[in-house]
Every structure is written in structure tokens, then in C-alpha cells.
């Protein structure tokens, strides 16, 4: 089943067209990697999906509903979670409090506010999933860069999304942490669809069911990992050859 699709999705910044008439489709349950050279438009594209920025033209359809005009928080309520750069973390708060905020947002979907104990338990369970439970009472700002990225993933998971969008989640992680992260994404994908912007090709090849390659705001190629690896156009875009 199609979970998300875009039609003619376009975003201009002055004279620059960062995302250019993109037709995109994502199936429920898949892990999709979005790759492409710097400046290809990947972050702009996922920002349009999450509602962080507005399109100049085109539409975003999520679970059959046109969400193009919905603000980001309304899309979160429908199940789109976007973990982006470190800015989403509250540096002076504990890890637990950070995740509690995300869980609370989800629980507020019901008409009653969540009770504190249920909130704590849910937040701890999420921290445990990303391997940060033993640091729950530590201050988020004291974490290493890589662990802050994991905390972001935890905050995304706290929303219990149908679609989790991850923007360069392995940046700054050690090799051992990357291996743990790959396992984590596989586990997340058991009950969510994952769209991942990723520069580490090892991670992409290991995780993705399908890969979408962007270049200059457009989709250059799309397909399973083996096909993308063999694609001459993709090699040209990456290697300049
Ligand atoms: N707010 C903005 N104002 C003006 N130009 C922007 C803005 N955001 C992005 N751009 C431009 O749009 C183009 C696409 O940028 P974007 O960040 O989406 O690419 P990317 O594929 O995510 O790159 P990277 O891999 O380096 O993160 C770039 O030329 C960038 O300079």
C-alpha cells in the first residue's frame, strides 16, 4: 500500500529550484534511502514532507489525505515524524524529559492528558530501544554528538510514527555505534516506514529496500540497492566521471 506520494513537488529559493517537480511514492513498511550529492535537494525535499517548509508548487499525500497545506504539528499528529539536526533537542533538560515531551505529544492525541507514570514508562522504553536508558537522567547537552543523534531518534520514536524520516542519522557516530544504529532501524521498520537521508553507502546498501537518488532537485534514479550500485548515471553523479 502507498503510504506517501508527492505530485509535482517543487520548492524555489529565489532563482534556485531546490526541489523540482518531484513525483515520489513510498510504500508502507519499506526502508527507503534518499541519496545524492551535496546540494541535491534532499533536506529540502524531506522538509516539504514534514511540513517544516512550504512548497512553491505541487502536493504531498499521506495515507490518502492531501496534507500539503497542513502545518508540521498537524502532520506529526497524523504520524509523520522528522528528526532533523540537533536543534530539536533541549540541551539543558535530561534525556528522559526530552523523550517525555515527544511521548506526551503523542498521548495528547487522546482527549485525556497522560498520567505521569505511564509517560515515564513509555519514555524509558523508548530510551531503552535506542540504547540510552542508562543515561536517562543525564543532561542532553552533555552527550556526545553521536548520542545526541540517537536521542533525536528516540524523540522521533516517542511519537510512535507511521513514517519516520531520518536526516543523516549516522553522522558523527563511531563504527560500533553505526552497527547498533543499523539494527535499530531494522527494528523500527517492523512497525513503521522509514525514509532515510544517508551519505554512508555501507549503511544504505545494508538497510534500504529501495534507493532514490536525487540530483539538482530531481529524481535521477530509483530502485533496489544492486540496481542503483550498477547504474552508470548514479556513478557519474557521485564520481563526476
Ligand atoms: N533556506 C534556503 N534558502 C536558500 N537556499 C536554500 C535554502 N535551503 C536550501 N537551499 C539551497 O537549496 C539547494 C538544496 O539544498 P539541500 O540542503 O536540500 O540539499 P541536500 O541534498 O540536503 O544537501 P546536503 O547533502 O549537503 O545536506 C542548495 O543549493 C541549497 O543551497
Give a written overview of the molecule:
- The structure is a single chain.
- Helix 3 (95-107) crosses helix 4 and helix 4 (116-129) packs across helix 5.
- The strands form 2 sheets. This protein has a 6-stranded mixed sheet, sandwiched between helices. A 4-stranded antiparallel sheet has the order 2-1-4-5, with helices on one face.
- The longest helix is centred in the middle third of the chain and has 14 residues, at 116-129.
- 38% of the residues lie in helices and 26% in strands.
- It has 9 helices and 10 strands.
- The protein is an alpha/beta fold and 241 residues long.
- It has a domain at 1-73 and 195-241: P-loop containing nucleotide triphosphate hydrolases (Rossmann fold, 3-Layer(aba) Sandwich).
- A hairpin with a 2-residue loop joins strand 4 (57-62) and strand 5 (65-66).
- The relative contact order is 0.17.
- The termini are far apart.
- It has helices at residues 42-50, 72-78, 95-107, 116-129, 145-158, 175-188, 201-207, 225-230, 232-239, and strands at 2-13, 16-27, 31-35, 57-62, 65-66, 80-83, 163-167, 193-197, 210-215, 218-223.
- The chain is globular.
- Adenosine-5'-triphosphate binds next to strand 2 and helix 1.
